[in-house]
Write a structure and sequence with these properties.
With 232 residues, this protein is mainly alpha-helical. It has seven helices and no strands.
Length: 232
């Protein structure tokens, strides 16, 4: 750690009073804390001066319809996008380099400074020639990626629809089987109850119509006999 941060002890003495009261006093902790302070400051600088200020300036350029300012900030945003992409890897593998975060702050200031015009220099000398030479290949790759993504989306969409349809058919078949079983059980129960009722009430129901028929025949015979006597 002492080789990576040789001036860490002096840096601890140069910290503001509030940081010196909050941070530990030993040299190792002070070295780590100074690196953390540098990281916080670099993030604030990138956020405020590298993102918010250029965003507001781009808004002003669009509002005023100034082509010169518009092109200037478009070049800056292209360089800043590349810087953000590279920063992801450098923060993981190169953050141990002394004054790494200070170099990031200096780079952002160099990009924004109207005297150095760093973003314009990088774009005109490196980015624009590279993109111009590789533009056709990049466009073809993007078109292929779009086609593949569309085909992949359609493929997975069809598979999802097939799975959903299969699940729906299985659920309908299962519910139909359960319903038919319940109806079959109900019909068997009704049939058995009907047969039991017929067996239980059979003799009573057969004697009652026979008695009624015998009574009717007796009345008809008596009426016919009385009619014959009256006629004679």
């Amino acid at each position: 750690m002492e080789q990576l941060f040789p001036d860490a002890a002096a840096a601890c003495t140069r910290l503001p009073v509030i940081w010196r009261t909050l941070l530990p006093a030993d040299s190792a902790s002070c070295r780590l804390s100074s690196a953390m302070v540098s990281w916080i400051i670099s993030r604030l600088v990138v956020l405020v001066f590298g993102t918010l200020y250029p965003a507001y300036s781009s808004y002003k350029a669009v509002k005023s319809k100034d082509v010169k300012e518009y092109v200037k900030w478009m070049m800056y945003w292209i360089i800043f996008a590349l810087f953000t992409a590279v920063e992801v890897f450098t923060d993981m593998f190169l953050c141990w380099i002394p004054f790494y975060y200070e170099l990031k702050i200096a780079f952002v200031v160099w990009l924004l400074s109207p005297y150095t015009k760093g973003s314009s220099v990088l774009y005109r000398k490196f980015v624009h020639p590279t993109l111009s030479s590789k533009e056709k290949d990049i466009d073809e790759y993007i078109c292929q990626a779009k086609d593949k993504s569309y085909d992949t989306l359609v493929h997975f969409g069809r598979k999802g629809l097939n799975v959903a349809a299969t699940a729906a058919v299985m659920a309908a078949t299962k519910s139909q089987g359960v319903l038919s079983d319940r109806l079959r059980s109900f019909s068997m129960q009704d049939l058995s109850s009907y047969e039991s009722d017929t067996v239980n009430t059979g003799p009573g129901t057969t004697t009652q119509p026979a008695a009624a028929q015998h009574r009717t025949r007796t009345m008809m015979r008596s009426k016919s006999e009385s009619y014959n006597k009256a006629s004679s």
